[in-house]
Specification:
Protein name: TerB family tellurite resistance protein
Largest sheet: none
Order of helices and strands: HHHHHHH
Low-confidence stretches: none
Strand content: under 5%
Shape: globular
Number of strands: 0
Helix content: 55-70%
Organism: Aestuariibaculum marinum
Number of domains: 1
InterPro entries: TerB-like (IPR029024)
Length: 134
């Protein structure tokens, strides 16, 4: 299980990703707030992170990194807008920084286009990473 500092780091990373296009949209904010609740982070701490990001902490657990990557994919596609190449490159780089395989990340981003609302089901995503991990 991840500790509080790691949870804050994950949330801070997601906030930074959402701020890619300057402002956090209402849909993104609500999604991030839902993730904060899931991670047992208070709204006050969440709002503080928006203005005061913390440094990235590398997760030890491969499965936690996959879950975080999936959250970022969901966040990128939450507004159903056309994904711009800068966001995709940024997501790809986040995945690499987390220590996920280039091939798996690329496959997820490629397959994402074939799913409704570009939402890759968790079981498909896990299978992609499991295949590359073995």
């Amino acid at each position: 299980m991840i500790n509080r500092v790691e949870k804050l780091s994950l949330l801070s990373e997601m906030i930074a990703f959402a701020k890619h296009d300057k402002d956090i949209k209402d849909l993104e904010y609500n999604f991030l707030l839902g993730v904060a609740k899931q991670l047992e982070i208070s709204r006050e701490d969440f709002d503080y992170l928006i203005e005061h990001p913390i440094n990235y902490i590398h997760l030890k657990s491969h499965s936690e990194r996959i879950v975080q990557f999936h959250r970022l994919v969901l966040l990128m596609n939450i507004d159903n807008e056309q994904s711009d190449s800068k966001k995709i490159v940024k997501l790809h780089n986040f995945g690499l920084r987390m220590g996920l395989s280039h091939e798996s990340i690329s496959k997820v981003l490629y397959l994402m286009e074939s799913f409704p609302n570009k939402i890759v089901p968790p079981d498909v995503l896990i299978d992609i990473f499991k295949t590359q991990y073995n």
